[in-house]
Amino acid sequence: MQSFYRIVYLRAWAILKNNWRLGFFGLFVATLGLTGDFDAIVNLQNSDIISATLTNWLNIFRNIATIDFSWGMLPDMFIFIGVLILMAIVLVLAIASQGALINASNQANSKKVLAPKSLFDDLEIGVDKFWPLLSLNLLNKLVGFVFVAGVIMPIVYLLSLTQTNTAMDIIIKIFLFFVIVPLTVIVSFVTRYGYSYIILKKQSAPQALASAWTLFRFNWILSLENALTMLLFTILYTMALIAASAFLITPFLILGYLVSNISALGFLILMVIGSFCFILLLISAISLFGAYYTIVWTETFLHLTSKKVSLSKVHRLAARHLPRLVE
Questions:
Q1: How far is the CA of 11 from the CAs of 51, 116, 287, in angstroms?
Q2: What is the pTM of this model?
Q3: To pair with 125 at 20 to 30 A between CA atoms, which of 108, 250, 294, 310?
Q4: What's the angle, vertex CA 64, arms to CA 59 and CA 68, rounded to 5?
């Protein structure tokens, strides 16, 4: 049997390579937070557009009653409102791009190269399904935020104040490790499959959650393996990006040092060009990563919902070395 990962990952790369325009969607999808499906347990970092927008609005409602308004504050207020409007636009594009990538990945299974017009159609589908997709994204972020801010962080803080390992402390630690943390990760998996059910199966948000839970329940080992594989890929990709950035920036720094003794203008020009090249590299890398990450999970969903047999790496290793365990 051909490896599940060889099928899904190579297929996702082929889709992205033949349809590099999908990187445009990937740039916005990356703002949703693509640091792995275990990001739910560190959701307080506000590393995504949804968490940042929610936090900003909460801060507004919390501080609006205590602010002493004056005419001199109007420019700052307009700037702040403008930033919120910009974040709202980015949020809409991010959610719509998420739906567009899922639909484009599905279409690419029958068409090797997608027409430019079809990409706009994919984006339109993402816009049409904006509210169901947003509701699942909010559920994922809120569950992680509530458990981390309301349960895990206070308990960890209280435990840090005690110097003894009593039976109750051990029970609480076991509860955190085996109940709360897995629950936040499970919600992340279920909502990720739910996005595909909304776009590809035309289901409502509640129906998508129910279907996604069933799919995850029967494929939880493979889902966990895939998430760990993508986490490893993310680490390696980040290391490669750091190395590429150093390789790109070093010549400009050396030339800038040599030119600075001759011409200040030449030094400034080199620094501007180097900064532009670095920003271009960073945007391109983020765009490709965001697109590839979403396509991989969409291809995983398509593979799991097809009639093909999908066995996890653990199952295949057990079948090879300990066949009695899988009989």
A1: 32, 20, 18
A2: 0.83
A3: 310
A4: 130
